[in-house]
Amino acid sequence: MARFRTRLALLGSAAVLAACAAVPAPFAGAQSAAAAEKKQWVALGDSYTAGVIKAAGDPIDYPRDGCERTDKSYPEVAYQDLWYFFDLTKNVSCGAATIDNVTDQAQEPIGHHFPPHFPDPDYPFPAVPPQSEAVDPDTDVITVGVGGNTLGFADILDKCTRLGGEADGEGTPCKDALAAGIPARLNKVSQEYDRMLTVLHERATKAKILAVGYPTIVPNDTSKCGWADITKFGTITQGDLDWLRQDVLEALNKTIEKSTGTQEAASFVDLYDSSQGHSVCDDDKWVEGLITPPDQLSLVHPNAHGHRNAADHVGNAMLNAIDES
Question: What is the DSSP letter of 245?
Fold first, then answer.
């Protein structure tokens, strides 16, 4: 996102000039003044925020809490860009988090526990508090990316893989089995998202809430995906991939955007359009498939390139929040 990088460079130059203008004052005092002007930012979300997979960097939590935050996830990358303007006071995003885990339900993180082939030696992990508890009246900006686990996207993928294998790659067996239940799933997302935004606003009435959508995962041309390729979508049929893109993933983003539009303090950050051409099935992919070669379990999550794109868009929205305040 070249425009964001240019804007950031200009703002950074202005910040340096401002700092230089303060040289006659005691240096320690100038540092304190600069720190006091920083906006307080809290990052919330699920695995698409936390990072989780090896292709999204190295773990940053020691000892591990099972949430699997990584150093190339978009909150960490955006903070590297925007540290002069924002303090990332807390990044409590967590793999497998639902909307309710953000709002008011404690979560028992799963780490990398996917038995029998991928057991996690540290599992089970102690419960982590509801993510909203990281927000307080001093918070200026909240970024939150969540909804896929409330929709049950991982379970949908699993069932589509199994049914596509049984159908030898033909037809739309997953759509046939699950399509009738998708509207109810989306309605659940909508209701819980509305409640989450209300709770976040009540906990930080002055904060701008930036609701982060999901990137392009399935390409428009699903013939790129190749049946039974585990570096892509495995045995999900081409027809079911078209259905997943249109009626599940795009519908999820629209649901989140609609909920965001009902809150004056909230804005939607679209990652979908900017990630077109970088799906699981594209050569320059920003989202990994089921497996990242040679044998890393990825389960359709953004890699470092996808998080870099997210950091650009989220960062630009954060700077806009400063402009509006």
Answer: I
Q: Which two tokens stand for residue 217?
A: 């995962």
Distance CA 112, CA 118 (A): 7
Predicted TM-score of the model (pTM)? 0.92
Q: Which residues are within 8 A (CB) of 196 and not within 5 positions of it... i.e. 6 or more apart?
A: 99, 102, 103, 132, 144, 146
Asked if 55 contacts 296 with a C-beta cutoff of 8 angstroms, the reply is yes
Take residue 59 and report the two structure tokens written for it.
């773990």
The burial of 154, by beta-carbon neighbours within 10 Å (0-12 exposed, 13-18 middle, 19 or more buried), is given as middle
- What does the pLDDT read at residue 324? 80
Long-range CB contact pairs, 174-180, < 8 A, 24+: 174/236, 174/237, 174/240, 174/243, 174/244, 175/239, 175/240, 175/243, 175/247, 179/243, 179/247
Domains in the chain and their CATH numbers? 40-324 (3.40.50.1110)
Answer for the pair 42, 318: CB distance below 8 angstroms, yes or no: no
Q: Is the pLDDT of residue 246 over 60?
A: yes
**Half-sphere exposure for 56 (CA within 13 Å, toward CB):** 34
Confidence band (pLDDT; 50, 70, 90) for 16? very low
Q: What residues pair up with 302 in beta bridges, in sequence order? A: 287
Read off the DSSP letter of residue 247: I
- In the chain, alpha helices (H): 2-21, 27-37, 47-50, 74-82, 99-103, 148-151, 153-166, 173-178, 182-203, 238-243, 250-260, 304-324
